[in-house]
Amino acid sequence: MKKPELLAPAGNLEKLKMAIIYGADAVYLGGENFGLRAGAKNFTLKQLAEGIKFAHDRGKRVYLTLNIIPHNEDLVGLPEYVAKLKELDLDAVIISDPGVLKIVKNIIPEMEVHLSTQASTTNYAAVNFWYEQGVRRIILARELSLEEIKEIIKKSPPDMKIETFVHGAMCISYSGRCLLSNYMVSRDANRGDCAHSCRWRYYLMEETRPGEYFPVYEDEKGAYFFNSKDLCMIEHLPSLIEAGISAFKIEGRMKSSYYVATVVKAYRHLIDSYFSKPKEYFCDEKWLDEIKKVSHRYFTTGFYFTKPGGEEQRYDSSAYIKTYDFAGLILEYDADNQIATIEQKNRIFVGDEIEIFGPDDDFFTQKIEKMWDEEGEEIEAAPHAKQIIRMKMAKPVKPWYIIRKFNET
Q: What pLDDT was estimated at residue 222?
């Protein structure tokens, strides 16, 4: 049984590095155009080259999204952009449109191509069709059960890899092909500019009584009837591994580097734990607790085991559950003096209790007794974004360790 690839989102260069350091086998990311996350920082060609080198130096892979569903005007500049990719050592591109596939194959015939979930692949006949077109990995539609996935794998070519989402936000529309954002605010989700209209609050209004709003669901706050819970399969990894899925994908190019590190670390540990001792494997609850410390919604297993019903939606709020803040990222550590240099990510104060963790270590807790600024002046608070501070650590740490603190609000 082959260990599945753990694939993480990389919305910018810091997130790419964080994903790889915390255990991802590969990352997926977008360039400045032609991907489905216009709101992410995304990568210039120069940043792409740096990210690819960072990944390859550590034996990891990088996949670039070209997965918009393009209109004619969206194809302008695409061949020229693809030609520039020839100079990079990308491991694969992710596409959803046959025209984009043809352009890529005409310009870089040797490029490995993966088919995006946006293509809504839901059966083995479609998988075999795409295989004949030169695609070598399919990211299946989220709307499939585990039994359907098993059948697809069984009836696909042996060298066709099957990838599925295991964690992250779920789109209310079929495989993300949403028109709601386009209709509401003229922002096309299928061309990378989703406004997340499904997370908005909606009421019912009767046409002869304008201005009188009635909740569709009996809650005075309104109705969130498009508002899906987040996918989380961390408690069911053995079932997915034994099904023969080639790659486990984490959603979240718009999420923080703290989110990426925490979720990747949890899945990495449990995948490795299963392959180390499959007969003795169990999902330690501490890893579920860990991923609940990042911004998330209530969890669901989506379509894997049953057809989702009303319980898979959240009706009272579209807000994230946020119990901890990303307080800082450790840049350097002076072992002789036990002093860490830290880039502040959220406001922290002397007296705060914080948790510190790295890619291979459990978190430890300490109270901030003293802090110093870059000039060595003692300070009581670090209120400024990306402020460089120093503090004494209770235990040894390394660069890329993360500091978080409990959110009391």
A: 46
